[in-house]
Amino acid sequence: MKKALFGLLILFLMAVLAGCQEKTTPEERLAEYISHWNKGEFAAMYKDYLNAGTKEAFPAEEFVDRQEKLQEDLGIDKIEVTYDKPAEDAEWDAEKPADFPIQVKMETLAGPVEFEKTITLLNETRDDEANWFVEWDQSYIFPELEPDDEIGFTRIPAYRGEIVDRDGLVLAKNGTGYSIGIVPEKLADPSKKTEIAKLLGTTVEAIDAQLNQSWVKPELFVPIGKTAATNGALIDKLVAIPGVGARTIEMREYPYGPAMAHLTGYTGAISAEQLEELKDKGYTETDQIGRRGLESLLEDRLRGTDGMQIYIKKPQENAEPIIIAEQEPVEGETVKLTINASLQKAAYDSMKGETGAAASVDPKTGEVLALVSSPAYDPNEFVTGISGARYKALEEDAKNPLFNRFAQSYVPGSTIKPITAAIGMEAGTLKPDEGLTINGKTWQKDDSWGTYRVSRLHPEAPNPIDLNKSLIYSDNIYYAQQALKMGRETFTEGLKQFGFGETVPLEAMELTASQISNDGSLGSEGQLADSSFGQGQMLTNILHLAMMYEPFLTDGTMLKPTLLFDEEDAQVWKKDLMSADTAATLRTAMRNVVVDGYAQSANLDNIPLAGKTGTAELKAAGEARGKENGYFVSYNTKDPKFILAMMVENVEDNGGSDYVAAMAAEVYKLMATSP
């Protein structure tokens, strides 16, 4: 009996204590719910905080999965939900709903979204325990959202910025091309697909795959390929086939084609690897991206930022969508270059498809006026999606049009002789008027050189050989002897002062640095001799070579090159490379190279050119005769608006460096008639 009474007493005390415990208020429950909301913890919100009516109306997947997917698709981030706190002495009646004004803020791909709502909590008993639960519907996602509505989003593409030359001439633009397609019911002769495939550089199987898509109907236009607007002849052949048509589409265009190809590069479909790498920058699998040249190097400036629109689509027919958020696209930047398109095209055309490179600079400003690699590809082909067969043909072309030669460095040959002369004159070891007696075709210092001898092309040059004659006759022996006089240390230091061993500081373009030798030093007298006339292991980049002739026109200053028009020009890169007297002496001698020397093709009647030719010998050990690259670096003495450096490979059977001088002369003649 006593035990029973004790048990009843315990139960009574527990009941009293339970009654004394403070019950959870609706504000406390709302604060917990909002904490989960701000963290995107929708599963917890659904499981522990939604009232029975809400759970009955909305299954877990509609509440949880839908909101998680919307966060991902719409880029919802930085959710901030707050509520208006009730009065401190507020009393809550379990029989009545508890209402709280809330404020919702979030960031989306289309910009910020903010709204205010009233949220209601109801008191319900679950598992014999009363508590407050949230009453929810779709309007807490977006206020205008109702049952059966859909949330959609649309990207508003930003136009890619154009690339233009110094005068605003367009080098890369948002133009038009053509989508080539077939209307199945009009293709009377299916065997024509073989001809169509050949013209488009595709296969019959690929065409059939397009025609066999589920949406295709006999009367519909089915796209099977693209082509640039410049391919007029190809388009004419295609549309002449019954059943084939062409429709205009937006497409990147390169009006100068191959002449600018290695400079501008091209755009193409983004690859899976690029998409993975750039996924945080908003790229999608349908985007075009810069693939080569400036299109790639300036991608961030050219691309722009797509806009985005988030909207609610009502189920009613013809109902206007409700815009939730909208962000206008930011168009890509138009990038203006220092390039002179007319000069670039003239240089490319003058090379007539020969393998080589050319570069031009303004000696007064350092602005880069031309960067040419020849031959080249047509970038318009790549925009449309080049076929495997066509790309393979370009890869296997003996002239390698895909290779960017202006970005490389090559043996400079005799074009380095004016630089060697300037170093010697500044060191005081080379006296311009002091002649050397040189006899025979070859020479060596003494027997310590073994079998190595320096050869010269014109042993008929009359003695004594002074600086002027050494350049006119391009005498290797003269420069070898002058290099020995100044010594390895002086010559090496002089070349370094001209920028050898340093990367050319050209923003937005990657160029191979010029080198004195593989390790940057001259290890023997033979190597010193060879390097004095641009052989040995010496290599120069074609732009750097053009720049090294600036000091002859600026009395000793080499300017930092600029390619982007908004860069500050006339910045000094190297100074005090030579005195005004040294520069004047070499200018006179380089004019005589054209008038009296072996660049007669550049000896024009009305355009007084000066410069230096060069023939770089590329002979492997044991070869009787190797390949030769020809050079000509030049400027107009009367009006030196630009320095032009040009190199053509394999000129051994075309007249050597004079072959290149003739090409350069064509450029000057074309530019003389250019407005």
TrEMBL record:
Major subcellular site: membrane
NTF2-like N-terminal transpeptidase domain location: 25-149
GO molecular-function term, one example from the UniProt record: peptidoglycan L,D-transpeptidase activity
Pfam families: MecA_N, PBP_dimer, Transpeptidase
Localization of this protein: Membrane
Keywords, comma-separated and alphabetical: Membrane, Signal
Signal among keywords: yes
Ranges of residues in domain Penicillin-binding protein dimerisation: 156-316
Annotated Penicillin-binding protein transpeptidase domain residues: 356-668
Record's signal peptide: 1-18
A GO biological process held by the record: cell wall organization
One GO cellular component term: plasma membrane
Family: Belongs to the transpeptidase family.
Name of protein: Beta-lactam-inducible penicillin-binding protein
